[in-house]
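thought: user wants a sequence for this fold. calling inverse folding tool.
action: design(structure=
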């Protein structure tokens, strides 16, 4: 690792550590250099204007002011291909439109060589989508209902093919058994219900704020192999 790479690595390690920071000894061990080298690198970062400070006392170390810096938007071809695969594999994915926008931003920020690498990798990843996505207008309405917790009126196709209208209070979106479901409190049945998103023929988002429902309270705690999405 050359010095430029090491300076970058120190910055990102401190960013990941957050307000607890990292000691010079920890950084030296992590990057396999001496503590003297770390001290020189910290001085170089300070001179370059990187917002760092030292915490005194036992366990003290170096801290990065993350509020005054932005992480680099450097994505590899494999990372971009992974995002594309996730979107293509799950076309009914909640917030899929937002995901496609995010992918477009990633691709626009990538160097030409990595963009070409992403396309080359993607061409070698073949898949068959398990389920067609709901109509775009329906998908947007469902996403917004969950995002803003507003009552939504569904035109829903039952198992026998009958079309029913239900005003529901959204609690969550869940994937299981190859399908996506809207988990909601049904006002008609006065009970929690699972609505398969591919059976929702139309959806009208109202302006009425829905009560806040805890999905685990209404539907039970998920099994050990399921649960909420974690960002980190």
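)
observation: tool returned 232 residues.
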């Amino acid at each position: 690792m050359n010095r430029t790479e090491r300076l970058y690595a120190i910055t990102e390690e401190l960013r990941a550590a957050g307000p607890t920071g990292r000691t010079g000894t920890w950084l030296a061990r992590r990057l396999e250099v001496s503590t003297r080298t770390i001290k020189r690198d910290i001085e170089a970062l300070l001179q370059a204007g990187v917002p760092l400070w030292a915490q005194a006392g036992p366990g003290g170390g170096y801290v990065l002011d993350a509020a005054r810096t932005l992480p680099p938007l450097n994505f590899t071809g494999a990372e971009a291909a992974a995002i594309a695969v996730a979107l293509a594999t799950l076309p009914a994915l909640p917030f899929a439109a937002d995901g496609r926008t995010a992918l477009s931003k990633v691709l626009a920020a990538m160097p030409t060589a990595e963009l070409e690498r992403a396309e080359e990798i993607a061409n070698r990843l073949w898949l068959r989508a398990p389920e067609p996505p709901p109509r775009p207008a329906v998908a947007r309405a469902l996403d917004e209902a969950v995002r803003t917790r507003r009552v939504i009126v569904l035109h829903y196709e039952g198992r026998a093919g009958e079309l029913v209208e239900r005003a529901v209070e959204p609690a969550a979106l869940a994937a299981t058994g190859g399908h996506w479901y809207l988990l909601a409190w049904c006002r008609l049945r006065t009970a929690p219900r699972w609505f398969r998103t591919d059976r929702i023929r139309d959806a009208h988002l109202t302006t009425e704020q829905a009560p806040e429902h805890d999905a685990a309270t209404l539907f039970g705690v998920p099994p050990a192999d399921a649960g909420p999405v974690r960002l980190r």
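thought: summarizing for user.
answer: Here is the designed sequence. The helical segments are 3-17, 24-31, 35-47, 77-89, 96-109, 112-122, 136-148, 215-219.
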